[in-house]
What we know:
- This protein has a single domain (8-128), classed as Glucose Oxidase, domain 1, CATH 3.50.30.50.
- It is of the alpha/beta class.
- Helix 1 (11-21) packs across helix 3 and helix 3 runs parallel beside helix 4.
- It is globular and about 45 Å long.
- The chain has a three-stranded parallel beta sheet with strand order 2-4-5.
- It starts with 7 loop residues before the first strand and ends in an 8-residue tail after the last helix.
- The protein has helices spanning 11-21, 43-47, 71-80, 100-107, 118-122, and strands spanning 8-9, 29-32, 68-69, 85-88, 111-113.
Amino acid sequence: MRGGGKFKIQIYFLFSWERKNGPIKQGSIVLLRTGCAESWPDRKAFRGLHEDIDNEDTLKPTDMNFPGYDASSATYLTVEKGVIGVGTDCLSIDSGENSRVRKILKCLNLSGYSAIQNKLWDVMSQKTLF
Length: 130
């Protein structure tokens, strides 16, 4: 998947992925590869900022524009599937406008991984990725 916008991985994407690849196993860490990491070190591009934003010191979460998980997918992965963490190559596991996914993980004492860089993807099996 190539990242863009405030696209959210919703629960039906996970169902589709599992039908194609098999069930997500308990104890797994689910990683979302969007292509966002390829925009680094361009800070504006990595954050998904529009060209007209000049002052990064006054950013609001709604100014950022990158893909992430939604609350239903995070709940499904953690509560139903028993994963121990989720991650992405974007700035955050949330889609830039809220922190629901991070709050879900925090309540369950689980890990969230952000800004995973390109070299890590090279050593992982393609079957483990979206």
